[in-house]
């Protein structure tokens, strides 16, 4: 059973996050992608008051950014977009779509920026150039030909600016549908659904400055060293101030432990680092609600003891009385939850949970940050609401230095929602659109991402228009999804680079190239800016500085307007006026959404402005006007975890990846290089199965009853990693084959990408003679 060299590229990483390794990675990325002159200009303008918003992540910029904020993965995102490589008509002529299908994501996007509008020709199995006007006319005619507007899906990925997204929803609603599948449905939908019920707004409540005033930051289920690297600078300040950071994550992530700031000459030259999290708790995958309930259960006990002994109360009773409802029900639920379950499902010791509760009880101001480790579960919405409960117990919402901080994904995913990308539009939005534009938008709720794929699969939807993204690869169940998309009548992709979604051919398929954030957007009245909203409700302008990758590109707003004009000859919207000067789009946004009062004026201030967030002022926009303690439904925890399948798989991003975009094959901080075919497992779990680093296994998905399914991922190489019991981890999107389309949160519809019960079997390569599961 000996292995030959299967452990190549696997070696523990001993350094801190950031530091020289990050600088080297940037230099490598730049060398591969762009010419020197461009990179200096482009990077210098990232997240500067006059520059463009970094397409990397939605972490906010310090107010009035004066110095260049270095970020490795931001630099990779910029250089990936500003590359000098091109995917031209000649390239498409030389390669059939079937041939391109054989390439991996890295190779497809690695060809560089799309340069011309293209249309698929089935006879030659190639994409061929088409004139913009012809493409618009053909797509418009097809869209006009469908009897039911609800058979068309309008997908949005979160890079679209406020201006593009606003026009997109206006076009779709005038066309007659609320079908808005978007990347948010796969990302922070549990936040958008759960938080309005709890605190009346579906967003985070803090501002960046709150980190200057907190005593405790709990980081649950997010990996900032990779996904929000600029957050490390904030955490570093928090740690240096002596405030406490606690990480709760099944995997030990270097970015939460130690950081060498490239901005600090001392740390760089002395090769030293700042310790971030003081304590690191390895919760079992899917065990967060159990852990949170355990913490709250202890707080209740501590509170009662304090009252008995005359010590200071642990819960903020005045806040609970004045501002909340549902405390009695929560208390009841916590009393009914037994410790055996909590410990089994969370995979933690009672002492660990007690320690978190103590830290929390002793902190005056607490911020809880969370990411996909919380949301992408069958019970994602309830997970989010348990976090809100914990904060409400000590009045930690709506005051300085305290609050909830969902780490948003794409750089404008939050803004897209704010300006109307939602399949469940509130009546106020529909009324506003009618008042401002004079057409009656559809009332019927539309499809989110999973529902859209299901509608396509069942033949109820026949057209899919994608404003960016890579829906087919991002969503669960690629086998079902790929087959479904190939049955479409019409597919239109608006994109910067070639990806797998573009190779799933419908009867009529168009691939239309767009300007990226980094590029100059020239319209009738001159160069235009767009706007974006970050994770903390700050809206600011973004203006590209580089010449467009090709003279044939259209900006996203102009492209959407072109489609709308060709589809809706009697449109009530003056599309040309909107496009001629984006100030007109912003005026329209302001007319529809009163929160954008004086939009054009306020967004020109350096750093932009903050959208009002009622919960941060303790105004609760819930039905009763109070914040709500929400009890988690059903039995106490995620019933799937409660079965306590031996192993639950979570799917992760590597350090060299932006969602489905692969910049490279390394995952530096987790000690993996040059490969992605790995499975992370703890030493104990590996030992139990007699597995060692470099062994290969096949992974089979189980159904909720624990029965084997047909879904499998073969020949994964074992990486023994410091992580929670009962948990394994593999990379997204490769592991999406293990997630059935109907495995999602019933409340928000988010696919359960991070709680997949699995079993391991020896792969033939390693254990030819043995069979049977490695339970
Ligand atoms: N460079 C880069 N930046 C990005 C992205 C990118 O791909 N690359 N993607 C962007 C997008 S769209 C998003 S949504 C964000 C994503 O940012 P994150 O939320 O950080 O995303 P993930 O990598 O999916 O994983 C999050 C963390 O959750 C942990 N985790 C997994 N399962 C569980 C669990 O059950 N419980 C707990 N407590 N933790 C768990 C994992 O170990 C991992 O550390 O980043 C954005 N920024
Ligand atoms: N298993 C598993 N699956 C997941 C996740 C997970 O953690 N695990 N995470 C989920 C999450 S959080 C998200 S957000 C989704 C991501 O889903 P998407 O947002 O659909 O996917 P991306 O990979 O970000 O899209 C990349 C493509 O966007 C296009 N693009 C890049 N920049 C621009 C631009 O400026 N304009 C336009 N028009 N196009 C552009 C390029 O063509 C590129 O190929 O995936 C989800 N899927
Ligand atoms: Mo995301």
Automatic annotation (TrEMBL):
Which Pfam family, any one of them, does this sequence belong to? Molybdopterin
Q: Where is the Molybdopterin oxidoreductase domain?
A: 113-496
What are the Molybdopterin dinucleotide-binding domain coordinates in residue numbering?
647-756
Its domain of life reads: Bacteria
GO CC field: membrane; oxidoreductase complex
Q: Name one GO biological process term.
A: cellular respiration
Cofactor(s) this protein cannot do without: Mo-bis(molybdopterin guanine dinucleotide); [4Fe-4S] cluster
Q: Name one GO molecular function term.
A: molybdopterin cofactor binding
The family database entries (SUPFAM superfamilies) matched by this protein are listed as: ADC-like, Formate dehydrogenase/DMSO reductase, domains 1-3
The entry's keywords = 4Fe-4S, Iron, Iron-sulfur, Metal-binding, Molybdenum, Oxidoreductase
- Keyword field contains Glycosyltransferase: no
Family to which this protein belongs: Belongs to the prokaryotic molybdopterin-containing oxidoreductase family.
Q: What is this protein called?
A: CbbBc protein
Q: Which organism is it from?
A: Pantoea wallisii
Give the lineage.
Bacteria, Pseudomonadati, Pseudomonadota, Gammaproteobacteria, Enterobacterales
């Amino acid at each position: 059973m000996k292995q030959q060299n299967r452990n190549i590229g696997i070696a523990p990483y001993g350094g801190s996050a950031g530091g020289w390794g990050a600088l080297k990675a940037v230099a490598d990325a730049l060398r591969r992608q762009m010419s020197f002159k461009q990179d200096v200009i482009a990077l210098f303008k990232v997240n500067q008051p006059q520059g463009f918003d970094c397409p990397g992540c939605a972490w906010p910029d310090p107010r009035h950014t004066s110095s260049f904020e270095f970020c490795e993965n931001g630099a990779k995102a910029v250089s990936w977009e500003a590359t000098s490589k091109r995917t031209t008509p000649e390239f498409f002529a030389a390669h059939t779509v079937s041939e391109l299908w054989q390439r991996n994501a890295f190779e497809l996007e690695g060809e560089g920026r799309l340069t011309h509008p293209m249309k698929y020709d089935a006879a030659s199995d190639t994409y061929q150039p088409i004139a913009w006007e012809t493409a618009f006319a053909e797509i418009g005619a097809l869209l006009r030909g469908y009897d039911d507007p609800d058979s068309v899906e309008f997908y949005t990925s979160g890079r679209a600016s406020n201006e593009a997204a606003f026009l997109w929803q206006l076009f779709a609603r005038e066309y007659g549908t609320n079908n808005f599948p978007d990347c948010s449905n796969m990302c922070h939908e549990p936040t958008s659904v759960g938080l309005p019920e709890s605190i009346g707004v579906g967003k985070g409540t803090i501002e960046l400055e709150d980190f200057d005033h907190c005593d405790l930051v709990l980081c649950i289920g997010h990996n900032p060293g990779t996904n929000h690297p600029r957050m490390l600078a904030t955490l570093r300040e928090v740690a240096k101030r002596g405030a406490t950071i606690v990480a709760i994550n099944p995997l030990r992530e270097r970015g939460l432990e130690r950081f060498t700031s490239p901005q600090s000459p001392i740390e760089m030259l002395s090769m030293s680092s700042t310790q971030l999290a003081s304590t690191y708790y390895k919760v079992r995958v899917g065990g967060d609600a159990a852990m949170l309930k355990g913490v709250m259960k202890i707080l209740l006990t501590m509170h009662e003891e304090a009252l008995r002994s005359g010590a200071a109360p642990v819960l903020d009773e005045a806040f609970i009385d004045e501002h909340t409802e549902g405390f009695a029900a929560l208390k009841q639920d916590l009393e009914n939850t037994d410790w055996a379950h909590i410990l089994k499902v969370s995979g933690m010791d009672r002492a660990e949970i007690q320690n978190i509760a103590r830290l929390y009880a002793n902190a005056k101001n607490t911020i809880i940050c969370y990411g996909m480790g919380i949301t992408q579960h069958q019970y994602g919405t309830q997970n989010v609401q348990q976090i809100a409960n914990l904060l409400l117990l000590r009045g930690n919402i709506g005051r300085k230095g305290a609050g909830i901080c969902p780490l948003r994904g794409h750089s404008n995913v939050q803004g897209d929602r704010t300006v109307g990308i939602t399949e469940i539009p509130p009546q106020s939005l529909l009324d506003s659109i009618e008042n401002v534009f004079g057409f009656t938008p559809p009332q019927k709720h539309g499809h989110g991402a999973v529902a859209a794929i299901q509608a396509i699969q069942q033949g109820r939807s026949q057209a899919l228009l994608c404003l960016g993204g890579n829906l087919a690869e991002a969503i669960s169940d690629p086998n079902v999804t790929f087959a479904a998309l190939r049955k479409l009548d019409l597919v239109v992709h608006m994109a910067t680079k070639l990806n797998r979604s573009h190779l799933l051919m419908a009867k009529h398929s168009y691939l239309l190239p767009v300007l990226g954030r980094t590029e100059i957007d020239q319209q009738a009245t001159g160069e235009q800016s767009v706007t974006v909203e970050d994770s903390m409700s700050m809206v600011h302008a973004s203006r590209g500085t580089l010449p467009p990758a090709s003279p044939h590109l259209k900006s996203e707003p102009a492209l959407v307007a072109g489609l709308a004009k060709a589809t809706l000859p009697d449109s009530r919207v003056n599309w040309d006026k909107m496009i001629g000067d984006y100030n007109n789009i912003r005026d329209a946004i302001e007319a529809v959404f009163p929160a954008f009062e004086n939009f054009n004026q306020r967004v020109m201030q350096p750093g932009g402005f903050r959208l009002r967030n009622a919960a941060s002022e303790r105004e609760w926009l819930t039905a009763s006007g109070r914040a709500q303690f929400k009890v988690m439904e059903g039995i106490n925890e995620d019933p799937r975890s409660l079965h306590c399948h031996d192993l639950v798989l979570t799917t992760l991003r590597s350090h060299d990846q932006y969602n489905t975009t692969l910049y490279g094959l390394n995952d530096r901080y987790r000690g993996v290089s040059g490969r992605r075919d790995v499975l992370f497992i703890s030493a104990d779990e590996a030992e139990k199965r007699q597995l060692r680093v470099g062994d290969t296994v096949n992974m089979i998905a189980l159904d909720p009853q624990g029965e084997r399914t047909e879904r499998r991922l073969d020949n994964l190489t074992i990486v023994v990693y410091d992580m929670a019991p009962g948990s394994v981890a593999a990379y997204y999107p490769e592991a999406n084959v293990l997630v059935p389309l109907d495995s999602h949160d019933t409340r928000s519809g988010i696919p359960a990408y991070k709680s997949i019960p699995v079993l391991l079997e020896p792969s033939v390569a390693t254990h030819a003679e043995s069979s049977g599961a490695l339970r």
